[in-house]
Design goal:
Shape of chain A: globular
Radius of gyration of chain B: 22 Å
CATH topology of chain A: Rossmann fold
CATH class of chain A: Alpha Beta
Distance between the termini of chain B: 7 Å
Number of helices of chain B: 14
Number of domains of chain B: 1
Radius of gyration of chain A: 20 Å
Structural class of chain A: alpha/beta
Number of helices of chain A: 11
Largest interface: A-B, 38 and 34 residues
Strand content of chain A: 15-25%
Oligomer: heterodimer
Largest sheet of chain B: 2 strands, antiparallel
Largest sheet of chain A: 6 strands, mixed
Order of helices and strands of chain B: HHHHHHEEEHHHHEHHHH
Distance between the termini of chain A: 69 Å
CATH superfamily of chain A: P-loop containing nucleotide triphosphate hydrolases
Helix content of chain A: 25-40%
Number of strands of chain B: 4
Helix content of chain B: 55-70%
CATH architecture of chain A: 3-Layer(aba) Sandwich
């Protein structure tokens, strides 16, 4: 009787009834929440009881030596790899472990891979146009028209990534750094809530790094940004909060100064170098 | 103001008309149609400027090949699917038309059976197989011209693209597809005239197929079909779907990652292309007067790819140029020295691949390039 009364309350929406496309619930603060996540490949523990919380609008840097599990962690968040144990939540409503890759992407998690892949035969403008969050089924795509609103959005992103001058050039002619920015721009066109960025400054010149730092700092606030990076100088220039991964779990967390003075971290990094 | 180079606020099928190259293509095509018509009608036979009915039909045949080449270029040039089996869709369209033409013969066949085509009487069949019903009606047959190749492409494409078969493997499967169909259609039991195929047609829509006027009409109809096919393909290419196709061609995984269902894009474009190939086959059959399983031969499908490569991939008009030039050369060569034709074709292919990797269209573009960039610059200022 009580149960019947409870589920017949029409003013209450039950979590398990809410459609997966419903907005991300960040009322409790965190946008991403990993708890006790473990995964092993052939006995090797790539992720070992990892706990990580990313707040809404935060810019977080994740560092760690090779094999610390950074890429595997990204794979788990985007649905590419399923953990053996643990739970992963996006906001407090969406259990990412029950969703597949395209659904997670649609929900608002964008991922930038290490190696930039843009559509080289298309112009910068067209690259952004294709990435735009619209109806992506075949027939709507065939009949799609570019509205003023779309144009404004593309222009906005073009300015943000600093490629407005090059909008009509083929993406194939861009420099490595420009391709990275274009790819970040393509992610932004999808209006993600959370951006996962994998080694954005690898192979960049000093100037390009500065531009990238500026770009990522600007993005934080509206989006939450998680940056995985090797380059300590770069991390120092953008990070408010740094998480150090080691052997699949969190070794230290805090500001860059706190972290770099942490004896455990020094040991891991110096141990690596020695 | 940021602008993309085309007016993308128009409906997709109207966009090609804003484009210089399409305007030029349609102008030349319709000009040529008009010229041939005038030369054929206005000058008496024997006059130096007279175009004979034989030539008109030959040109009509070339235009069918051109439409087939456009269909192949759509999937190969823009979607990156190298189909070595488009001859199958061409032949299926041809067979659908052939079945209609067979039923039109009525009791004028050698055996004089009012319903059964000659080859069925010859095989001692008592009644029409179920799949021959309806082909006495033109509208039904014309729908089947689109439906038969379209359905085959849908089923084949669904299975292939869903399993993410691409590249060389897909090409090989398309070869196998057309080869299997050829073997099947060779069998008398299939009910499509076996080895001899369908022939001895009398008339189409009530017009005598042997009359010069009908031949001219078919030639013009083929020209119009080519124009429509070209505009449809161009419309797709200029649409957002066209850009998604290019994206699938160049970076399939990335396209999937930004949210497009790559296999559905491939399926859609593949089916459209197969239907166009079917139309080309349907217009081909009444002009050459026969359809037999040799149209399914894998060699023919490969030849089509050679036309497109010669003309230049991913331009559509290049495919038309390639189809016309190679087939004209074929007619000339096989007339002068039949044995040398394959060597000539092979030589031509090697020459173009080495010297003109972008085909003849690439040569045209290179010549036009300075003019185009000036135009683009002008556009930007005004935009």
């Amino acid at each position: 009787m009580n149960f019947f009364e409870e589920i017949s309350h029409r003013d209450r929406v039950f979590e398990f009834l809410a459609p997966a496309a419903s907005p991300v619930d960040v009322r409790h603060g965190p946008i991403l929440y990993l708890e006790d996540v473990s995964v092993s490949f052939d006995g090797f523990k790539a992720i070992n009881n990892l706990n990580l919380t990313i707040d809404d609008g935060e810019l977080r840097c994740i560092i760690g030596p090779n094999g610390a599990g950074k890429t595997t962690m990204m794979d788990i968040i985007t649905g590419k790899t399923r953990p053996d144990t643990g739970s992963v939540w996006f906001g407090s409503r969406h259990n990412l472990l029950t969703m597949n890759e395209p659904d997670i992407a649609t929900l608002g998690i964008g991922r930038k891979f290490q190696k930039p892949t843009v559509f080289e035969a298309l112009t910068v403008f067209e690259n952004l146009e294709l990435a735009m969050a619209t109806d992506k089924r075949v027939l709507p795509t065939l009949t799609a028209r570019l509205t003023g609103e779309h144009r404004d959005r593309i222009e906005e992103v073009l300015n943000l990534i600093g490629l407005a001058q090059l909008h009509h050039r083929e993406a194939g002619i861009l420099s490595h750094g420009q391709k990275q920015w274009l790819e970040i721009g393509m992610l932004l066109m999808q209006k993600p809530r959370l951006l996962l960025v994998d080694e954005p400054v690898a192979g960049m010149t000093e100037q390009e790094m500065e531009r990238t730092a500026e770009l990522l700092t600007n993005l934080a606030g509206e989006q939450s940004v998680v940056v995985v990076e090797h380059d300590m100088g770069f991390v120092r220039s953008i990070a408010k909060k740094v998480t150090v991964l080691h052997q699949g779990s969190v070794l230290a967390e805090g500001t860059m100064d706190q972290v770099s003075n942490d004896p455990k971290v020094i040991e891991v990094y110096l141990g690596e170098g020695a | 103001m940021v602008s993309s180079n085309l007016n993308t606020s128009k409906p997709w099928l109207l966009r090609p008309f804003n484009e210089r190259s399409t305007q030029l293509f349609l102008g030349i095509l319709f000009g040529a149609l008009a010229l041939v018509t005038i030369l054929h009608l206005a000058f008496p036979e024997g006059h130096a400027l007279h175009v004979s009915a034989y030539t008109v039909t030959l040109l009509g045949k070339y235009l069918c090949y051109a439409l087939l080449a456009v269909a192949v270029d759509l999937v190969w040039g823009f979607l990156g699917i190298l189909s070595l089996g488009h001859g199958a869709f061409f032949a299926l369209g041809g067979y659908a038309m052939g079945m209609y033409l067979m039923r039109q013969i009525g009791d004028r066949g050698v055996y004089g059976d009012p319903v059964l085509p000659d080859f069925m009487v010859f095989l001692n069949w008592q009644e029409l197989p179920w799949f021959w019903h309806g082909f006495d009606m033109a509208w039904f047959a014309f729908i089947m011209v689109l439906l038969a190749p379209g359905l085959l492409a849908l089923i084949f494409g669904f299975l292939a693209f869903r399993s993410r078969v691409t590249g060389v493997y897909l090409s090989i499967i398309t070869q196998a597809l057309t080869f299997a169909l050829m073997l099947a259609f060779f069998r008398n039991e299939m009910g499509f005239g076996g080895n001899n195929g369908l022939t001895d047609f009398k008339d189409i829509l009530g017009f005598d197929l042997r009359s010069d006027a009908t031949r001219l009409g078919l030639f013009i109809a083929t020209g119009i079909a080519l124009a429509i096919g070209y505009v449809v393909c161009r419309g797709i290419v200029l649409s957002k779907l066209g850009r998604v196709s290019v994206a699938c061609r160049d970076a399939e995984a990335r396209t999937r990652f930004i949210g497009y269902r790559v296999e559905r894009v491939q399926l859609f474009v593949f089916v459209v292309s197969a239907m166009l190939a079917g139309v080309a086959g349907a217009l081909y059959v009444p002009q050459v007067g026969i359809i037999n399983p040799s149209e399914f031969s894998p060699l023919f499908s490969i030849e089509v790819v050679v036309w497109v490569a010669l003309g230049g991939r991913a331009t559509l008009y290049g495919a038309v140029i390639g189809a016309l030039l190679v087939n004209y050369a074929k007619t000339v060569f096989t007339g002068i020295m039949p044995d040398a034709w394959l060597f000539a074709l092979g030589g031509l292919f090697v020459l173009v691949t080495v010297l003109l990797p972008k085909g003849i269209a690439g040569l045209l573009q290179r010549r036009k390039a300075p003019e185009d960039s000036a135009q683009a610059a002008g556009q930007e200022v005004t935009a």
